[in-house]
Amino acid sequence: MSVEESWAKIECWIAQHAPEEPELPGPCTCEDLESLYERLDVRLPEDVEQSLLRHDGSGLTEILPPGYTLLGIERILENRATWLKYATPDDANLAEEDKPFLVPVAELSVEKLMVDTRTGRLGSWDIEQGYFSSTDPLRASLSAALDFVGNLLDSPRPWILPLPGGGELEATDMDLDFPGTLVWTEEPLD
């Protein structure tokens, strides 16, 4: 499925089940992307670019499990500058030559979802563990993650995501604290 088709399914679910979500940001422009590339010194994979051209991030909406918000262009630049300055010098999980090719595309509190601009593969970074990658199919690319979320939300209730190694997450619109929003929870609701 294309990034556009995945976003269409996600947008439809939000409109139908999560009316309390803030409106998703509009698209960035091609000029915004070119400016981003000049400042990054690398190009983002095509699927990340297509997502930004649909929505310049996801604002406060937690699109990717377990609760990542997608970054818009300005937040990508801010996060990358901070990461390169403070995080990468001590990251034993990364070879020095790999660091320039990693760009944050989503965040969950202090954890960053990073895209390897050479392969499109997603990995995670946090201050305690440093950078780590996974063989999880949801991390194959941003388009794979959006495809999975779109298909999951397009299916009948309950929207259950099995996790590698056991366990599961549920996408819900009936969270007690945030009703009418998209919430990923480890506590399935009755």
From TrEMBL:
UniProt keyword terms in alphabetical order: Plasmid
Boundaries of every Knr4/Smi1-like domain copy: 27-93
InterPro entries, A to Z: Knr4/Smi1-like_dom, Knr4/Smi1-like_sf, KNR4/SMI1_regulator
Entry superkingdom: Bacteria
Stored PANTHER family: CELL WALL ASSEMBLY REGULATOR SMI1
Protein name stated in the entry: Knr4/Smi1-like domain-containing protein
Organism of derivation: Streptomyces alboflavus
